[in-house]
Amino acid sequence: MERTALAPEDVLKDFMPINGTDYLELYVSNAKQAAHYYKSAFGFKSLAYAGLETGLKDRESYVVVQDKIRLVLTSPLRSGTAIGKHIDKHGDGVKVTALWVDDAKHAYQEAVARGAKSFMEPEVLEDEDGKIVRAGIHTYGEVIHIFIERSNYNGVFLPGFKEWKTEYNPSPVGLKYVDHMVGNVELGQMNEWVKFYEEVMGFTQILSFDDKDISTEYTALMSKVMSNGNGRIKFPINEPAPGLKKSQVDEYLEFYEGAGVQHIAVATDNIIQTISELKSRGVEFLKVPDTYYDVLADRVGEIDEDIEALRPLGILVDRDEEGYLLQIFTKTVQARPTMFFEIIQRKGANSFGKGNFKALFEALEREQELRGTL
């Protein structure tokens, strides 16, 4: 593993400051039902809506929120739409990663000048609550980044949306913000997209894993982690590595029919409480062998949590030079074996759980074997 830190000079020369993740938009086959799922299972609440009632004729979007996480769930209302074709090819998945910036026009111009393919030139959207500026670029697969400037907007979400009020809003489960978002790309494409994020968006590679770090008896992958100047946006990029059997990345690329977002990692301040609540609401997680916990203390040293509290929940632990982290991964959350979620709690650690890779991959392989895709 190769590891580098963000040097002060890298932050100073950050030509595209990003404040954080503004929202993630998923194209889904049934936005209304998807919104109910994320509310009931993951503790999100209703925020905003756009559709026939707001003047849209071809699609509708439901926006749900939990702390700093906003998910936009969008479905077509007619056949033959670009959204419908996207879902037909890929299934449900992330289409837009919206990045909150102070100056959307500047971010767009910097990216395009450095080689990004334009998705949307800067435009201003206004309503009675103010205005936002947005612009967009293409990235891997059909994923796009939208730059959102909202300093002059006080509305519920974006112009064109109205407040979505519902009587049913389950209590939150403690999810706070997007910690990182992982992309899967085709064999041989990882370094191309690392170069894209370095040159086009000014990101820095902070971690690198090869097939010796991320492998089991049967499968392997390679990964590099890209971070923006202030460290608020982290995009690990995976590609498959040769193995005896089909890896989780190969399976993703087959069923998603191309590159895309593999998983969304969301942070919590109390992972034991969060996972207990998620399990009680029916969220399913990958499970590692019980023997994982027999040697955990020897591997990671002293931690604040009781290992016997982690064992029945299947929560994993890993340590780096700065501290430790706790993490767990859901099973896939749609029909195709593609996108899933990670729940993570950091206690000083800035890494991504290298010590858990083998146990995690073996758990994923067990799921693949059940599906007949290993």
Describe what this molecule looks like in 3D.
The chain is an alpha+beta fold. It folds into 2 domains: 15-163, 2,3-Dihydroxybiphenyl 1,2-Dioxygenase, domain 1; 176-369, Roll (2,3-Dihydroxybiphenyl 1,2-Dioxygenase, domain 1). The chain has 10 helices and 18 strands. The strands form 2 sheets. Strands 1-12-13-14-11-15-18-17-16 form a 9-stranded mixed sheet. It has a 9-stranded mixed sheet with strand order 7-8-9-6-2-5-4-3-10. It is globular.
In short:
This protein is of the alpha+beta class. The chain is built from ten helices and 18 strands.
What is the mean pLDDT?
A: 90
- Give Rg in angstroms: 20 Å
Uncertain spans: 1-12
**For the largest beta sheet, what order do the strands appear in spatially?**
1-12-13-14-11-15-18-17-16
Largest sheet: 9 strands, mixed
Hey, roughly how much beta strand do the residues contain?
25-35%
The CATH superfamily of the largest domain appears as 2,3-Dihydroxybiphenyl 1,2-Dioxygenase, domain 1
Question: In total, how many beta strands?
Answer: 18
Any idea of the CATH topology of the largest domain?
Answer: 2,3-Dihydroxybiphenyl 1,2-Dioxygenase, domain 1
Number of domain modules: 2
CATH class categorisation of the largest domain: Alpha Beta
In CATH, the architecture of the largest domain is: Roll
* Shape by Cα distribution: globular
User: Which secondary-structure class do the elements indicate?
Assistant: alpha+beta
- The helix/strand order is EHEHEEEHEHEEEEEHEEEHEHHHEEEH
- What is the helix fraction of residues, given as a range? 10-25%
The N- and C-terminal alpha carbons lie at a distance of 26 Å
How many helices does DSSP assign?
10
